[in-house]
Amino acid sequence: MDGGVSENMRIFITFDKVCKPFDISGDQTVLSVKLMIKQYFRITLTNDKQGRRFLQLIYAGAVLEDEWVLADVGMTSYSTVKCILKDEEKAILYVFNALTRRTIPIIENSQFLTASVSELKSLVSLKSGLPVSTFRLSTQEGTELYNCNKIKDYDIDIGSTLRLDIWDGWKEYMMGCLLGHKHIIQQHLSEEEPVAKFQRRVALHLAAFFGHLDLVDWLLQQGVRADKPVGAHPYREWCQEIEHPNVNKCPVHAAAEAGQLLPLKALVNNNVLCLECRNPQGHNPLKICIQRRHVACVLYLIMKAWSVVSFQGLSFPVRIYIKIKHWLHKVQRHVRSRKRMAYRTRVGDTIVVDGFTELRMRSRPRVRGGRKDGRGKKSTLPALSNQVPMTRHKPPALDAQRYHGGLMDLSLPAIGGQGRGTTHVASKRKSNPETDAWGMNMPLPPIIRDTNPRPQFFYSAPNAAGLLTTSLLSFSQHNGRTTRENAVYCLALASTFKEKPWLQQLRMARNLARRSIQKPFC
């Protein structure tokens, strides 16, 4: 036989429980054999944006590539080749993680584009392990995706790539959490205590998700609770109503979703309330593990749920003990709620509002030597020692000529020269050391004449501005002071009580101001 001519041979193709013989030549490629099989069995193959359907040939346990020649793989006559039809779904979206520099594929059906951005962020959080309150999603053009909108509202097509960004200055900290390096986390904790508390909760969430047991133990010793939600960033304190529901997810839920048995044991042993901790969907860790089919975690949680707790010589089932603990915590929250304000933000804290304030989630590196704002200037709060000196000042003696109707007339010193609130009588009078000391005690913000336009309020009365101006003028005529001067006066009186906390001094000043409005001559 001529060496240039390949010998014909017969092979058997098994497909869908059917075995058929095919006569082929040894120099044929695998792709040509696939075309023969496709025509003989009339198979429809697809390759579009949503996915592809293709044939796969397996010989001697190995998958044959399309460009391979049959003779080169050692195939002989009367060999049997297995043919299977495979469906492969393509990713409908891709998310580029700016923190890890990796791309996350989102494999869903085409109807997923009609879902909300909130659902997309939940899916990205499960794939990346990051809490939803630590990142934002945006298009390639830089348009931010908000939770309440639909994905299709941003004209996102199948196969598009989105970008995931974290808070500015958090890259080193987040990498330390992903790798489980405690010293990096300690080094890059925020100097602001509310932000530092939030970062510790984020660190526990990531440590539980990725199984960093040493980091979990250290954070639990720091007082971070696994049954408390990670929550939102303190800068977004005033955006509670529009936050993602999964900000209420706890670190124990992250351990259950990832099937991390050792961190889950550490969290439950530290706080038995983790057994009945519910996620935003109302599922406890046991139900989450059952849904994710983590058998080892399910067996452990069932054993703990039916165990017994000994307390002061008494033995309780775990469920009864958890109910007692819940009842005690409920009473404690009720007591604390009477003393706690609705918002934890204070004067001078940073507030971030979607679409209005400067964006602070662009994965920018941390600025050494102090935190800076977007314009390059350092934005740090003044030290408390500069605001309230430690020296104690006596309140000025009540003079009969300056005493009117139960309230003392406080002449304010000029702030930055001849201020607006400085009267002609005060400019001629000699400086009073006690009054000057009060002025030092109360550093006041300058009078800002803001000309920026503001959005109009709906259903506002047409003469609302006139009513407000009339009320202010009436107050000045009857009280002898402007509203700003009256506020400074009340704050100065309250600041003399140094033994009181600052918030209590502020309440005293507010009560004085309210009394001066209701009874100006009493």
What are its keywords?
alpha+beta, Ubiquitin-like (UB roll), 522 residues, disordered N terminus, 17 helices, 36% helix, Serine Threonine Protein Phosphatase 5, Tetratricopeptide repeat, six-stranded mixed β-sheet, 4 domains
Structural account:
The chain has 522 residues and is an alpha+beta fold. It has four domains: 8-89, Ubiquitin-like (UB roll); 93-166, Ubiquitin-like (UB roll), CATH 3.10.20.90; 171-311, Ankyrin repeat-containing domain (Serine Threonine Protein Phosphatase 5, Tetratricopeptide repeat, Alpha Horseshoe), CATH 1.25.40; 393-445 and 464-518, no CATH class. Helix content is 36%, strand content 14%. It has 17 helices and 14 strands. Strands 1, 2, 3, 4, 5 and 6 form a six-stranded mixed β-sheet that branches. The longest helix has 22 residues, at 318-339. Mean pLDDT is 79; it is low at 1-5, 370-440 and 456-461.
CATH superfamily of the largest domain: Ankyrin repeat-containing domain
- Compute the number of helices: 17
User: What's the level 1 CATH class of the largest domain?
Assistant: Mainly Alpha
pLDDT under 50 segments (min length 5)?
1-5, 370-440, 456-461
Provide the residue-averaged pLDDT: 79
Could you describe the largest sheet, including whether it forms a barrel? 6 strands, mixed
Helix percent reads 25-40%
Tally of strands: 14
Measured by DSSP, the beta-strand proportion falls in 5-15%
Q: Which class of secondary structure composition applies to the elements? A: alpha+beta
Which radius of gyration do the C-alpha atoms yield?
A: 35 Å
**Name of the CATH architecture of the largest domain:** Alpha Horseshoe
CATH topology category name of the largest domain:
Serine Threonine Protein Phosphatase 5, Tetratricopeptide repeat
Provide the number of structural domains: 4
Instruction: Kindly report how far apart the N and C termini lie.
Output: 125 Å
Q: What is the approximate shape?
A: elongated
